[in-house]
């Protein structure tokens, strides 16, 4: 796929094409093999005046442009060749590499067409594997990386993506040798080092994971991500003193990193040091006064101390800052960024809801997608959201998610009694629904029914404690995304 490989293999790619013994094609090939790209462009331009329908000349011209680093012109020439012959392999390969380098989804169907003709092409499998990794399709990515392993054996980015997918697929032991090879090639690549440590930790090798992180920890330029991962590993081995030291270091180094404050608060919660956690969250709020997750975390600690008035006040502030904030999301440390639905996805949900008006799940998914758009009350989209959520709850009264969504909508609208009704409906189905408890506490605070709040807060904090271990597992194994390069074989 690489330009140099393409130029070296030109005689094989073009020898079978019809033409005179010494044709203009041969002259362009000679110039390309000599890396004389300007001459190749001159020769191909002259030849195309008499043979504008020669796909070979268009592909060779594209290679010359690519050699000069003019990818847009190269892609245009490859596409012209493909208009003449959609299955023309040299043009498919060249266009696929340029589209891959650009991160364009168009690369995928080009690679699949290459593999239809050359099913054992390792470079195409490797590139396809990297694209599937970026699409979070690790099942297919692993299969393609396996078939293209020799093409990426010395490419740390691609090996890192392969290793990450092996971890996601639960093949922790298999990932270790892949990460080890990748890190040996690029010892300064932080993403690789962190992901290798995560893989070792998940493979029940915490000491090896710490050894992997040690060079980064000792570096004066250690990032907060490195320090927090190491802290979590130390805490898992009951070495709390090291964990505290590293989290404090992360806070000092990156005082606006919300993850560091949340990790410290979680550690304080686990060890019964609620006031210490509150003090650190107070410090965090001086740096991040509009960060709802910090208020929510502080509310949890206040509730553990029995300070229910302070707890509900913090929950109320958190809700005002971010009405979409998930209680379990923060309480359990699941603070990953939300991926809002694209307009195209929303159109698909709308079409599905219209086609299946009596399917509760379809109606709920449509309502949820609309909710993530954040439309204001009174807008047509907002009315659609409410109608779809209400329909989902009517069609399936046991759908907890639909009741939770309606409670959030009604809470935002100021329709407190309806929010209370939906929260209680969710809890009648799932008494452990933390989101419903959170909504209920917030709503009751706005009514005259405040006497229930202390009991609900106690219930909420107990649920928080019971689910803590699952949350830690989720945060422990979050992988860093590997950066895309022009090609996994570069």
TrEMBL record:
Residue ranges of TPR repeats: 156-189, 224-257, 292-325, 400-433
InterPro entries assigned to the protein according to its UniProt record, in alphabetical order: TPR-like_helical_dom_sf, TPR_rpt, Ycf3
Coiled coil start-end: none
Superkingdom of the organism of origin: Bacteria
Keyword list, A-Z: Repeat, Signal, TPR repeat
Matches recorded under PROSITE patterns: TPR (PS50005)
Signal peptide positions on this chain: 1-15
Keyword Repeat applies: yes
Record field: transmembrane: none
Pfam families: TPR_16 (PF13432), TPR_19 (PF14559), TPR_8 (PF13181)
Entry-linked PANTHER family: TETRATRICOPEPTIDE REPEAT PROTEIN 6, UDP-N-ACETYLGLUCOSAMINE--PEPTIDE N-ACETYLGLUCOSAMINYLTRANSFERASE SPINDLY-RELATED
Name of the protein: Tetratricopeptide repeat protein
């Amino acid at each position: 796929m690489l330009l140099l490989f393409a130029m070296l293999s030109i005689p094989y790619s073009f020898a079978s094409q019809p033409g005179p013994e010494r044709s203009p094609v041969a002259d362009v090939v000679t110039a390309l093999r000599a890396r004389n790209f300007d001459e190749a462009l001159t020769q191909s331009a002259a030849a195309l005046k008499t043979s504008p329908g020669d796909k070979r000349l268009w592909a060779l011209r594209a290679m010359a442009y690519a050699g000069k680093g003019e990818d847009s012109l190269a892609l245009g020439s490859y596409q012209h060749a493909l208009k003449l012959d959609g299955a023309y392999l040299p043009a498919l390969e060249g266009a696929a590499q340029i589209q891959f380098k650009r991160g364009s989804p168009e690369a995928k169907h080009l690679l699949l067409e290459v593999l239809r003709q050359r099913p054992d092409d390792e470079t195409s499998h490797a590139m396809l594997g990297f694209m599937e990794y970026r699409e979070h399709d690790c099942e297919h990515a692993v299969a393609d990386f396996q078939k293209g392993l020799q093409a990426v054996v010395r490419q740390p980015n691609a090996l890192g993506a392969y290793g990450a997918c092996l971890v996601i697929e639960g093949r922790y032991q298999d990932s270790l040798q892949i990460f080890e090879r990748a890190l040996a090639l690029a010892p300064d690549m932080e993403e690789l080092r962190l992901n290798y440590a995560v893989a070792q930790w998940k493979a029940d090798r915490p000491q090896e994971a710490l050894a992997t992180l040690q060079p980064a920890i000792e570096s004066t330029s250690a990032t907060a991500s490195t320090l927090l991962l190491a802290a979590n590993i130390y805490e898992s081995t009951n070495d709390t003193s090291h964990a505290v030291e590293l989290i404090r270091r992360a806070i000092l180094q990156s005082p606006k990193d919300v993850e560091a404050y949340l990790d410290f608060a979680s550690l304080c919660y686990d060890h019964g040091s609620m006031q210490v956690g509150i003090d650190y969250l107070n410090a965090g709020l001086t740096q991040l006064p509009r960060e709802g997750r910090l208020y929510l975390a502080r509310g949890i600690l206040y509730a553990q101390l029995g300070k229910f008035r302070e707890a509900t006040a913090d929950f109320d502030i958190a809700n005002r800052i971010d009405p979409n904030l998930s209680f379990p999301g923060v309480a359990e440390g699941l603070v990953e960024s939300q991926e809002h639905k694209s307009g195209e996805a929303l159109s698909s949900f709308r079409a599905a809801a219209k086609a299946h008006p009596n399917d509760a799940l379809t109606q709920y998914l449509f309502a949820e997608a609309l909710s993530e758009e954040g439309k204001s009350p009174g807008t047509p989209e907002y009315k659609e959201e409410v109608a779809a959520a209400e329909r989902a709850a009517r069609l399936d009264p046991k759908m907890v998610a639909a009741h939770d969504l309606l409670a959030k909508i009604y809470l935002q609208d100021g329709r407190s009694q309806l929010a209370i009704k939906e929260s209680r409906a969710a809890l009648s189905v799932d008494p452990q629904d933390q989101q419903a408890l959170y909504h209920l506490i917030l709503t009751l605070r706005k009514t005259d029914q405040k006497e229930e709040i202390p009991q609900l807060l106690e219930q909420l904090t107990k649920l928080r404690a019971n689910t803590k271990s699952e949350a830690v597992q989720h945060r422990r194994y979050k992988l860093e995304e590997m950066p895309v390069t022009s090609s996994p074989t570069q």
